[in-house]
Each structure stands twice: as structure tokens, then as C-alpha cells.
Amino acid sequence: xxxxxxxxxxxxxxxxxxxxxxxxxxxxxxxxxxxxxxxxxxxxxxxxxxxxxx
Length: 54
Prior knowledge:
- The protein is mostly helical.
- The protein has helices at residues 2-8, 12-26, 31-53.
- The relative contact order is 0.07.
């Protein structure tokens, strides 16, 4: 129970990271595939951040 409370009080980016890790592990994908997909996601969101600031 204390662990759940700690996560609830964690910053949003930490909560999201934990959720993503759990989701990816549930799909039992190999690590290389996950890392390749995350590179695409990271590029996409970096582009979105740049568009929001300009």
C-alpha cells in the first residue's frame, strides 16, 4: 500500500514511465523492439514540443 501511495505522489512523468513500462512488459516484446519504437515516439514528441514553442 505504501508503494502505491509513493507512486501517486510521484511526478507525472514518473507515473507515466511506470505505466509505460508495465504496458510494454505485459505485451512481452523484446527489448530491442521496444527501444526502436521508443526512438520513434521520442522523435514524434520532440517535434510536437518544438511546434508548440514556435
